[in-house]
Design a protein that fits this description.
Blueprint (H helix, E strand, L loop, with lengths): L8 H9 L5 H19 L2 E4 L1 H16 L12 E5 L26 H8 L3 E6 L33 H8 L5 E5 L6 H7 L2 E4 L20 E5 L2 H11 L17 H8 L8 E5 L9 H16 L3 E5 L7 H16 L20 H12 L2 H13 L6 H22 L4 E5 L15 H5 L6 H6 L2 E9 L6 E8 L4 H19 L26
Parallel strand pairs: 2-3, 2-4, 7-8, 7-9
Antiparallel strand pairs: 1-3, 4-6, 5-6, 5-10, 9-11, 10-11
Helix pairs in contact: 2-3, 7-8, 8-16, 10-12, 10-13
């Protein structure tokens, strides 16, 4: 394995800037790694070899001329979740209904990455339209967890998180509607961040649930995530929900946190996220992480957020309701798949046949739930009530943040589960997002940072750190301080302990595709 792919994004950027190594060399090393292992992991749906090398060469040419780098991440490769549009590459959202669609424009996130000199390697696999917690719902087959190829990498952004854990990319972009950045980050031993809602533009992000969707950075270290956060964040007039406010000082906070001093920081432990249904090894790793925060000088306080227990049912009314509206645009009339066209066939029949063929089982399930919840006679009883619960959850956060600076919890109740284990049990699948959903409903910031391996199965566990809206820097400071202490206590970065991928690891693995 090339030494270059083991380096952090910050280290790579520094070497490229100093011209100790070229961006082309770094990009080729990652493209070679993708070619060597992605047949096992299936993190990518599309690899843009020519485009990536051309972008890398442009960075090198600029540095050779003496130009200032476009950003602190200029020349560093990145994997982009296939829910964000990218000129010159297909955007499928993991669905057959968009197979072969090449968007004519870049998402704002994509455009900002290009402007920053970040090299786009390609598009990563995902649960169809971001609906899922395992990346088994992709119409193009499941992604596998590099820690154990028989297990899921989380979802919906399992392709992005797996690309990091497999050392196919040093950076990635995900989207988080109910935990789709943080839950994959937790089970792959990587860092994943959901910024404050509206902190990163949604323009060009194919909508699932418009009041919840948020793009964010995925990385192997807290500093790398912060550097990427600053590249993609900021106001965008193309997005009506974009916040017109300065980007929180997340990089400065990460660097401050790395000094290892949390004196004066009040950390709240959410009591509702430590009960039945949590894997004992996850809870032990979490409690050890909390103790480490204490040793760093933080004041740890027990906090109660009583309405968090209603977040899951509220989410699974709000998100499907919004998706049933957003996915109505896939009507076989304008772009994407078209089935049943012919003489004597009505437009309604073409729409019905296209959606039947193009949408997977989980998408159909959520569209039906949402359509029912919004229907006449049921709107107030279901969608309206769920929005009231959302308000109560937001008030719980407000009350908690009046007494503490950040909240912490396990990121997900269990480690990565075997592929196929929850395929026929949607409720068990939905429980993977138990801890992450409240932050989406309230719109505040949250991230996951690895906090060790479960003593039961040796798989990664995530520590979730939550901060108030527009105070994203608070969670970066705490997470960076914890990361440094964890590495010192455990003899180095956790991610360096991921097993080397071998084809033999696939023997006997369940290749069943779910919902696609």
């Amino acid at each position: 394995m090339s030494e270059l792919i083991r380096l952090t994004a910050a280290e790579l950027a520094g070497r490229i800037r100093a011209r100790e190594v070229s961006s082309v060399e770094v990009t080729r090393a990652h493209l070679d790694r993708i070619e060597a292992v992605d047949h096992e992991v299936h993190a990518f749906l599309h690899v843009d070899t020519d485009g990536a090398l051309a972008a890398a060469e442009a960075v090198d040419d600029g540095l050779a001329r003496g130009d200032e780098p476009a950003s602190p991440l200029a020349g560093v490769p990145l994997a982009l979740k296939d829910v964000l549009t990218m000129r010159g590459a297909p955007t499928t959202c993991g669905s057959k209904i968009l197979e072969g669609w090449h968007p004519p424009y870049d998402a704002t996130v994509t455009a900002r990455l290009r402007a920053a000199g970040v090299v786009l390697l390609g598009k990563t696999n995902m649960d169809e339209f971001a609906m899922g917690s395992s990346t088994e719902n992709s119409a193009y087959g499941p992604t596998r967890n590099p820690w154990d190829l028989g297990r899921v990498p989380g979802g919906s952004g399992g392709g992005s998180s797996a690309s990091l854990a497999a050392f196919e990319a040093p950076l990635a972009i995900g989207t988080d509607t109910g935990g789709s950045i943080r839950q994959p980050g937790s089970v792959t031993g990587t860092v994943g961040v959901k910024p404050t809602y509206g902190g990163v533009s949604r323009y060009g992000l194919v909508a699932f649930s418009s009041s919840l969707d948020q793009a964010g950075p995925c990385a192997r270290t807290v500093l790398d995530a912060a550097l990427l956060h600053e590249v993609i964040a900021g106001h965008d007039p193309m997005d009506s929900t974009s916040i017109d406010a300065p980007v929180p000082p997340v990089v400065a906070a990460a660097r401050e946190g790395a000094l290892g001093d949390l004196r004066g920081v009040r950390v709240g432990v959410v009591g509702q996220f430590r009960g039945d249904g949590y894997q004992p090894g996850v809870l032990r790793a979490f409690e050890a992480a909390v103790e480490q925060l204490r040793e760093l000088g933080a004041e740890v306080i027990e906090v109660s957020c009583p309405h968090f227990e209603y977040a899951l049912p509220a989410y699974y009314l709000i998100a499907p309701s919004e998706c049933s509206s957003n996915l109505a645009r896939f009507d076989a009339m304008r772009y994407g798949l078209r089935v049943g066209d012919g003489a004597g066939i009505s437009a309604e029949d073409v729409m019905a046949q296209t959606r039947e063929a193009g949408f997977g089982a989980e998408v159909k399930r959520r569209v039906m739930i949402g359509t029912y919840a919004l229907s006449s006679g049921y709107y107030d009883a279901y969608y309206g009530q769920a929005q009231k619960v959302r308000t109560l959850i937001t008030r719980d956060f407000d009350a908690a943040f009046a007494t503490v600076d950040v909240l912490v919890s396990p990121t997900t109740p269990t480690t990565a589960f075997p592929i196929g284990e929850r395929a026929d049990d949607p409720m068990a699948m939905y429980l993977a997002d138990l801890c992450t959903i409240p932050s989406n409903l309230a719109g505040n910031a949250a991230l996951t940072v690895p906090c060790g391996l479960s003593d039961e199965d040796g798989l990664p566990v995530g520590l979730q750190v939550m901060a108030p809206a527009l105070q994203d820097h608070r969670m970066y400071r705490v997470a960076a301080a914890y990361e440094v202490a964890r590495d010192a206590a455990q003899g180095g970065p956790l991610i360096q302990r991921v097993p080397e991928l071998r084809q033999s690891a696939l023997a006997g693995a369940d290749d069943r595709k779910v919902g696609g």
